[in-house]
């Protein structure tokens, strides 16, 4: 156990979480002093890779040893934690929020920062109320709710794809998370409890969209046009799927080239002919719809001017 009032890490009797009074030299209880030069008190406590980890605002301390005869703290890493509620443990890594960003720790090496793409949000975190920031995990994505600017409670939620290492903002704000098996629940500041995974919200189909990065097909000097798209997807009965494209690296007008409603639900390779009257150097794709369509692959056929 640890608390914010002192720099003591307390441990129970060996293999007995109810024993906090035994004085046996080998199996009894005890306390470990975890001091730092700045005198900071603990801000979080967790376990990862069979080690106990104690956080302070600016440092991370890992406990080694099997019992009171050989417990020792390794030299601390210079990365702390500002909210114990932001600490998330997965099978692959430990994640948490520090003063300067979100970190991942795989064990055996220094933690790495994963939040550079959202640094504009990190800079705006209200450090005075950083302890109210919270994170959750659904088995694939990490969710981070931050109190930014003058807010004292979370007012923005960001989502991190652990597999593809991509961030994006969410349309909801959560103040707590709970993973029950494979179902993620989250609470909101207005007292609601929400469950993820449904295809409708209050009877209305949930809308979704995905915009790709700009593509130049390896040549940023030649104008080109999309000739054909192949979209390999599963579109369940009742779901919808739309495909659009736009020229340029940002902004522009989206042109819809495909839409489907009430498909078979089977894996299907959708052939989409595209007529682009004004070739562009760069272009983007946007897929959107309702329901739980699963996109497996997108193949682009492009013609270059003069080719």
Describe the protein in words.
With 307 residues, the protein is mainly beta. The strands form 8 sheets. Strands 3-4-5-6 form a 4-stranded antiparallel beta sheet, with no helix packed on it. The longest helix has 5 residues, at 119-123. The chain has 3 domains: 1-80, no CATH class; 81-197, 7 Propeller (Methylamine Dehydrogenase, Chain H); 207-304, Galactose-binding domain-like (Jelly Rolls, Sandwich), CATH 2.60.120.260. The relative contact order is 0.09. The protein has one helix at residues 119-123; strands at 8-11, 30-33, 42-48, 51-56, 60-64, 72-73, 88-89, 94-98, 101-105, 112-113, 134-137, 141-146, 156-161, 166-169, 176-180, 183-187, 193-195, 200-201, 204-205, 207-211, 224-234, 240-247, 255-261, 267-273, 283-290, 294-304. The radius of gyration is 25 Å and the shape is elongated. Strand 7 (88-89) and strand 8 form a beta hairpin. The termini are far apart. The mean pLDDT is 90. It is built from 1 helix and 26 strands.
Give the SSE layout.
Blueprint lengths: L7 E4 L18 E4 L8 E7 L2 E6 L3 E5 L7 E2 L14 E2 L4 E5 L2 E5 L6 E2 L5 H5 L10 E4 L3 E6 L9 E6 L4 E4 L6 E5 L2 E5 L5 E3 L4 E2 L2 E2 L1 E5 L12 E11 L5 E8 L7 E7 L5 E7 L9 E8 L3 E11 L3
Antiparallel strand pairs: 1-2, 3-4, 4-5, 5-6, 7-8, 8-9, 9-10, 11-12, 12-13, 13-14, 15-16, 16-17, 18-19, 20-25, 21-24, 21-26, 22-23, 22-25
């Amino acid at each position: 156990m640890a608390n914010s009032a002192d720099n003591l890490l307390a441990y129970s009797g060996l293999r007995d979480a109810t024993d906090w009074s035994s004085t046996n030299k080998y199996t009894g209880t005890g306390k470990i002093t975890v001091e730092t030069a700045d005198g900071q008190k603990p801000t979080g406590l967790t376990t990862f890779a069979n080690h106990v980890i104690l956080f302070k605002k600016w440092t991370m301390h890992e406990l080694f040893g099997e019992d009171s005869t050989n417990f020792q703290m390794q030299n601390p890493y210079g990365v702390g934690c500002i909210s114990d509620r932001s600490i998330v443990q997965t099978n692959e890594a430990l994640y948490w929020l520090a003063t300067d960003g979100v970190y991942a720790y795989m064990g055996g090496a220094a933690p790495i920062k994963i939040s550079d793409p959202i640094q504009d949000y990190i800079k705006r975190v209200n450090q005075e109320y950083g302890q109210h920031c919270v994170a959750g995990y659904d088995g694939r994505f990490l969710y981070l709710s931050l109190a930014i600017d003058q807010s004292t409670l979370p007012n923005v939620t960001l989502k991190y794809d652990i597999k593809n290492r991509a961030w994006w903002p969410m349309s909801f704000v959560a103040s707590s998370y709970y993973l029950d098996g494979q179902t993620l629940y989250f609470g909101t500041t207005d007292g609601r409890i929400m469950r993820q995974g449904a295809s409708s919200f209050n009877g209305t189909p949930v809308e979704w969209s995905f915009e790709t990065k700009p593509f130049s097909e390896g040549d940023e000097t030649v104008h080109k046009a999309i000739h054909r798209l192949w979209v390999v997807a599963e579109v369940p009965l009742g779901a919808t799927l739309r495909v659009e494209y736009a020229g340029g690296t940002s902004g522009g007008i989206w042109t819809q080239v495909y839409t489907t409603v009430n498909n078979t639900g089977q894996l299907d390779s959708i052939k989409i002919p595209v007529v682009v009257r004004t070739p562009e150097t760069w272009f983007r794709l946007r897929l959107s719809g309702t329901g739980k369509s699963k996109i497996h692959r997108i193949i682009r056929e492009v013609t270059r001017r003069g080719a």
